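Friendly challenge for the regulars: who can give me the structure tokens for this chain first? No prize, just bragging rights.
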Amino acid sequence: MTIKLITAFVLAFLFATAFGKYYIPWLRKQKMGQQTKTEVQQHLSKSGTPGMGGVMFIFAVTLVCLTVGFEGMLNGRFEHIFVLLFAWVYGIIGFLDDWEKLKKKQNTGLTAKQKFLLQLAAALVFILVLRHTGFVNTSLYVPFFNTTIHMPEWLYFIFAAFVIVGTVNAVNITDGIDGLATGTSLPVVFFFVVMNMFWGDKYNELGIFASGLMGGMMGFLVYNFNPAKCFMGDTGSLFLGGAVAALAFAYDMPLILVTLGFIYIIETLSDIIQIGYFKLSHGKRIFKMAPFHHHLELGGWTGKKWKEKELFVLFTGISLAMAIISFIGVYNRFPM
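First reply, four minutes later:
Bragging rights claimed.
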């Protein structure tokens, strides 16, 4: 199985890097430039940088699932296809959002209500599919304590919808500077590859998906690292968020996202706190700008203005540390 995981990674990496050489010039020719937030002065020069770059790793992992994962499909194993299709649904929602931004020539696309309803519907359908195929049950696994909590089915569906939609939007919020969402998510996805290696056959197809996604993201990072030649756009960030959430549920351990998705949570909480405090205090702010990476970028608290490459290293390093902690938390779940 290790050979398949390596093959999935290498194939996706090579495809994404090769595809990017032709795709990014095409995006420029089509004038698919993305508008950036004007509140951060150093980002003004980025306006016009092509968006929708996430298509690189979306196509890469799709190729992997249909080739490296083909044997599994012949044997009646389709869980990687379920996860892929689910992530595609979110990618399409992101594409619609990106397309609206391009039409309006500004940094707003679909309304919050439109995105929420589409994401909620996708989440509920996915959980129903996993429930029907036996990949999830209503007993919630608790990492670190190696125990389960039994939940009524209706409550589990509400919980699942909340976690999925929250995770998808949290990844989207993290995508604010060059390479940040990519770097932060690489250890997250690698965690699921490692879990397949330790837990064996039941998760082989999911491991192929995770390894392919990781390879595609690495190929995309070649173009997304600072200074970025393209952004992943909502097309990429919503697909990526959908993939992370789907993997957590397909492995039947969604609570691992509390530690594994630590950076996503910090980014989201900073946004929620900023908005809530701004309204309650009639215009005062806790952070110089939310989400948290912009606060650091603008010199919040310490006065040090973090550069984008420094933030990439910091957030990726923290994410890697949390992935290791998460591994410790679930290591004893199944006997080796």
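The mean pLDDT is 89. The two ends are 16 Å apart (CA to CA). Your move, everyone else.
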